[in-house]
Give the backbone structure.
Amino acid sequence: MNKQFEAVFCVINAGFADTVMFAARKAGATGATILKGHGTTRTEAEKQFNLTIQPEKEVVIILIPKEFKDDVLKQIYAIAGLESEGHGIAFSVPVTKVVGLEGFTDESASEEAAGPPAESL
């Protein structure tokens, strides 16, 4: 039986990735990848949501077991959501295949035992 994963993405103002990770760790996440980004928006969107959009962003990508997804999203929203100084948004997408996470999937253990394919040697 393979473990199912979700990828949680959080787009947040620059400088708030640690806040997102604090929230995610409270819900069971262990690590993430943080990318620098630059947001764009129309002034109408800023007026509609009554906030100023900071163009410098960080994108936090967290790969987690599916059963942690709801708790991680709730913690991120509570600590780093739109109402916070970081103005974060978060969403998740299902992950259909994971490689390279030894100990997390049954496949990784069997692939490691079998060794690399002959054509890659």
Q: What stands out?
A: Residues 25 and 31 are 8 Å apart (CA to CA).
